[in-house]
Structures are given as structure tokens and as C-alpha cells.
Amino acid sequence: MPQKSTSQPAAEPATPDRDDARRGSVHRLQMPEAEQARQEAKPAQPNRRAGGRVVLPQRSRVLVGSWKWMTPTLVAASVLAAATSLSIPPLLAIPLLLAAIGLPYLTPRLDPPVIKGTAALQRQFVMIGGLVVAPMIAFSAAILLWLSQGGLAWTSGLSALVGASTVGSAFLYRRLNAMFSAQIGVWAMPALFYGGLIGLGGMFVLCMTAFVIIRRESELQSQLDKKLQREERDRKRAEHILRDYEETGQGWFWETDRRGQLTYVSRPVAEALGYTQETMVGRPLNDLFDLADRDDESERTLTFHISARSPFSELAVRSAIRDEERWWSVTGRPLYDTFDNFVGFRGAGTDLTEKRRSQEKATRLARYDSLTGLANRFLMSQTLEKILGAPQELNRTCAVFLLDLDRFKQVNDTLGHPVGDELLKQVSVRLEGVVGEHGQVGRLGGDEFQVILPGTHKREELGELAHRIISSLSQPYGIEDHRVVIGASVGVAIAPDDGVTSEAIIRNADLALYAAKDGGRGRFHFYANDLHSEAEARRELEQDLRDAVTHGQLELFYQPVVSAADEEIVGFEALLRWNHHVKGWMQPQKFVEIAEDCGLIEQIGEWALRTACHELSTWPENVRCAVNVSPLQFANPNFPTVVTNAVAQAGIDPSRLELEITESVFLTDDSNTDQMFAALKRVGVRLALDDFGTGYSSLGYLKKAPFDKIKIDQSFVRGATETGSRNGAIITSITSLAQALDMDTTAEGVETLDELDLIRMLGCSHIQGYIYDKPLSRDVVMKRLQAGLKATASGPRSARAARQKMLRKVELSHGATKYRGTIRNISVTGAMIEGLWNVPDNTVFDLQISETVSLKVTSRWCYEGRMGVQFDRPLERDFNGNIKVIADATPAARKSLLRDAG
User: Fold this and answer.
1) What is the pLDDT of residues 142-156, one digit of tens each?
2) Structural contact between residues 574 and 627, judged by C-beta atoms closer than 8 angstroms
3) Sign of the C-alpha dihedral, residues 814, 815, 819, 822?
């Protein structure tokens, strides 16, 4: 904004710009620092004449413009002198009077507008001598000539000289050099002709004084001019800097009048709004901003400050720029005149858009997972806290799912973290797809996810959702030409039943998750009160396992593998056993998973491999030994070296060692797996595919994986002899596939004679199970081998269905007679009922299990108040292995229907 200097002579007319400048100078101390610097940096605006020449303000001329009025003054003095003396000037005095009268009149034309350069002092002498001294000497000489010829009275002549001297001094006020020169010009002639030596001496002193004063005044004027020029350069430099500040978008300035209308706004801001600076002047300040989208959390808005006339600093407001979200940080202060009247606001602004975007990005990073875009641990915790802290107690209900991906670590270790990251992204998409709008999904870190479902939900609904989540996440993933298969385990806790604080709910959901993992992974589990003791027991068991590994307390037992053709032992499978100092012999499934979770499995696996090879060296040459290999061992690139060293140290033929590998090693389906198989085959060991058909991979790997044997999981053997079972057809398919691929087959878990007969009939080449022997200790194996390799089957003729203990009051109807009893255990084919005596075999009853479930049953035996019944048709099990008619019962009925005793 233009600003005029406030030090121009009063004789020059005032302008609106100059008035604004005066007002700006009054309030300079009240302005924002940036704006104050900008205003102070503005150079003083020069006056412009018609010719376009620039004249510096204040003392830019030697003589003031009023010196031309000396002409009428001298005319008046001459006329008065003539009138008072009743005489006219002599002829010789008339040219002098005309020169004295005419020269001052030429002052505006002959006085240069600007004094610059090295000739400034000489020019001053010339201008003062020609326009001041010369006319005054001429006037004084004319008066003296007039006096000397007797035409003019001394009083009149002296009055004319004194009057000319006084008025001239008045016209030359603040021009000391010119004023002294005028006095010298007036009194030089009288002193010269009438003053004598004293007059001449006084005049000399006066001339020297005038010379010194003129010289000093010229020096001061020169210094002042240089100072003004220097200030002008500084102002222009500051103005350019501030203009660059505006033009480059670093900041901008604004000013309003007392009505809140703009009197100035920076050009870039006006153009960004679609206007020019001129059209923005007079518009309300609020037109710059979109105040409808202000920060509602701010207690003092821009409107408040403007109306309250209070200063504000760095206030974030959204701009009114169309089709663009831009934020400004605005600072402003009110302006007051010398009478403390409010005259408007003046301030500055900076672009806040990038900073705000960075803040929003930082806020998002603080609340959302950067990899998957899901809510992070912090936001999930906030969500749960908000639900549990709701004002209404009815609104404090929710269900929390904790999810853990099974075998995710193996993907990271074998395929690398980029593939693992992509897998997590796909998992998050599937998880959000299953949960939908019913709840919030978050990633807590690593492969841990959380789902929060607000409101009250039935356990059946939660179980169905958990099942869908597990099923969805267990489907194969395609990542960079890799086929990846993982699983998921889910723990569920419900508020407020399982806790009223977020800490309690998360802890209990975590305990439920561990219980799901302990149950075999790929499962879900609801929280129960006894899980705390189970978690503590797990922790203690992990510590005991570490001690057992350190002190060599683990043992290997060996279960015979028998040829189906001649019933001779052809090998043994090495099975890990642990005789706990308190709990006694522990099943491997209870501690192997703990070993995998705590990182002990590779150490235990290597020990088992070396121990089995050492024992194998003492057995007959035609007997093999099979050792189970963990997927974590298989993923270790050094595993072939470990196998080679173990075989070499034991001094055995590598073909006598058989490594049993599960299908889970194929979940990555990459070149590393193929290279590992090739390396193991170069060592010379045999490879067996363990638990065939229970994994997650397709049959495609059988085309290239060099297996020597396929082991049929006992889950297919169990129940294969039951009527309507499809297990026999599956076993037939497996044996046919193995024969076509020139592989042996081993059926695991054969326990009854009818299962043995079926397995032989279906073409399995080898049999392993309790029908021949349980796992044997090292010493028993040696005795067994010394007795010969012949094996004899020994066991029950057939197996009964697995039974589940329970306690349930039921009603039985036989015709019109009703009986009450209690179910003690149940299976899919029958149940044992207490409370009925002396019931004849083959008696048919209608068994009412619940209000909605009724079964037709037949008694098969009855002894001492207990009766065994067979169902008319086998019951079905659900995906969790529970009997379906019990799982489908209503919650109230099921609670009394089933009390699981183990």
C-alpha cells in the first residue's frame, strides 16, 4: 500500500495518500511486526510535476517557492517610499529597481528542482547570488541613489530597506544561507558608502559568517540528501523483499477499515480467489474465508475476534477458494487513531495447507495402520474404551475377537517380508469383507488382528462369524506367482460378561486365543474362567520345557511300521516323549506347539535327528527309522547340512533314514521348497509325506516333490469301518495315487482288527498303530529286534464311536408310558442312560433330548440301572466336532444339556 512521507512542507497541498500515511505512522507500533516492517520499508512518494521530473520532498530546492512574492514586496516598498516622500526615483535608480523587482519573480523558473552531484555547492552560491543577493543589492543601491539626489527622505529610505530585509527574512525562513545572503545584499551598499571602516568591518564579518553558515548549511543539506537517498534505497529493498514474500506465496497482507471492509489485500490472494486487487477493495474481510468449515474445537473464531476488536495470532481458517481445499494461518491487530478511535484491522497470513495435511497425515498414522489401512492398536483401544465407558449401561456391551495368523512367520522367513506385507494387505481386505458394517477391524501389529462388535450378540452368531473369518482367511492367496495358504485362530471375549474394562476384555480374549491355538489352530474359542489357570499352566510348562531341553530330559520312543504283506517290522517312527517331573509322561501335542511358539523346535528337532541316527546305527541293516521334520526346520537353508552331519556321525546308509514332512511346507510353493527337496535327495535320505490330505495344499506338488512314501492320516482310518463312512473311498484313492506314482503308503492309527482287514483290502503297503504296538522305549526296541522282526496283530475286533461325557435329564417314551433318566455319555451312534432297570434288549424308545429334538433309540443292554441305547440313525457333528443336535439347541437348553467333563 502506498505511504507518503509526513514531513513535506505545509505549503504543499495534502492528498488522501498523505493522510493515509499519517494515519499509518500513528499506528505503526500497533501493527503486526511483519506488516510494520513492510510499511516502514515503503519509500516516501515523490511529488510529480507536469514535465515528469521528480523533486525530492522538503529541502529539494535552494529557495522556497514563496521567494517569488518578494517581487510585489519590493514594488510595495518602492511605491510607499515614493508616496511618503512625494518624489520619484532618479533615472539611474529605475533599472536597479526593475532588476530587483524582476529577479525574485523568476525564482520558480530558474531554481532547479533537484540538487545532486558534486556541483551542488557552486549551484547554491550561483542561485543565492543571482536570485537573492543581486536583487537585494540592486534594491539597496536604488534606494541609496534616490536618497543621494535628495528626492527621498532618509526615514522613508531606511523604512524601505528595513521592510525589504524583514519580509525577505520571513520568506527565507529555515533557509539560513539564503536569509544571511539577503541581509548582506540589503545592507552591503549602506555599509560600504556610509559605514566607514566600522561598517566595512562589520560587513566583512557578516559576509564571512554568511559564508561559513552557507557552507555548513550546504554540508548538512548534502548529508541529509544522502541519508534520504540511503533510506529510500533501504525502503525499496525492503519493499522488493516483501513483494517477493507475497508473490512467492510465503505470506500475504491485508487491511480493513472500521466497517470490516478490505482496503488492501495482497495480489496473489486476490487472484487465487478469482478477483483482482482493485475488485477486492471494499469487500468484507469474511469473503476471504470459508467460515462455515471452521475448526469447531476452537473457542475463539475469526468472527469473534473481528467483532470483539481483539488481536489474534495464527488462527487457522479455510480459504474461500473454489474447488480447492486451502487453509491459511491469519494474524491481525486492531488499529486506533490518536484519539483512540477504532479505524480497522491490519494483519498478515501464511499458507497452512501443507502443514495441515502433514498434521492430518500424522494423525492418521497415529490412528491407522500404515500397511493395511486398518485401525491400529491405539484407535481400537479408544473404540473399546468408548463403548465400555458409555453413559448408558445398556450400551456397554460388545464382543472382541483377537485373531492370530497360523504359519505367517514361515511365509516371512521363506518368501521375505515384501510377500508377507502383501499377504497382510490381502488378509485385511478379506477380514473387512467378512465383518462388514457389523464391527470395526484393526491390526494390532505383526500378524495380530482385532475385531470389535458393538452391541449384544448371541454366542451362536459370534461363533458363526468366527467360523466365516477362519474359513475366509484360510483360502489360498496368490502373491507374486506364489500360492500361499495360511490359517487363523480366534479368541472371543464378551463384555460385560467377561470383563468391564478394556484391559480385562483384551486379556481374556487373548487367553481365549491361546486356548484356540492349543486346540489345534484353525479354531475359535470363547473365554472361560478356567483359562487363567490354563495360561499360567502354559507359562510354567514352557519354562519346564526349556529346563528339560537344557538338562536332556526329552526322550525318543519308537513305534513299529509293519509291512502289510508279511507282517514284518520294516522300520520305526521316532516319536518325542517327555516325562515331566510332576505331570508324568506328556503327549507331544501338548508341548510341541509350545516349542514352536517359543523357538525351541529347531533345537529339539536337531537333537531328535541325531539321536535317531545314533540308535539306527545299532539296528539291523534292513530296518529304517522315520523322523518328523518341523516346517521351521525344513525352511532353514542349513537343514541339509544338519542331516548330512547326523548321518555321517552315525555311520549309517542315508537311505535308512526317512524324513517325514507335512503338507504345510508347500504353502509357499516357491523355488526354495524345490531346492530343499533336491538337496535332501542328494544326501540320499528317503522322504515321506506325513498326514496326507489334512493340509492346505493342492495335489500339484506331487508332480515334482520326490516323495518315497505317503502316510495316510489316522483321521481317515478312524471310522472307516462304520456304515456310511466315506473314509474307505478316500483311502482307496490315496493308495491308487501312490501306486501310480511308485510310492509306498503307510496307514497310521490302526487300532482294531476290522480296521486292519480294511486297510489291507484297500491296498496299503505298510501299517502303523496300536494293533501291532505302542511306541517303545530305546531298550524295549532293542529287545524287540533281538526277538525277531515278525509282528502280531492284537486288539479289539471293532471300535466304538468316540463318546463325550455329559449330564442331562431326559425323558423316554415307550408307547403311552414315560420314563425319566439321565444321559451320562453320548456318541454319534448311541448313549448311556441311567435310571431305568431291567429293560429288555431291542426295546424301542422315543428319546426327548430337548424341547425341539427327539430321537428314536433302541436298547442294546441294561445292567444295574444303566442302559445302552443305539440311535436309529447316526448323529452328525458340526465343524468344531461337537454333536450337532446339542450344538443346535437353544442356549438355555444347551446350558443344561451339556456339561463337558473333558
Assistant:
1) 888 888 887 788 888
2) yes
3) positive
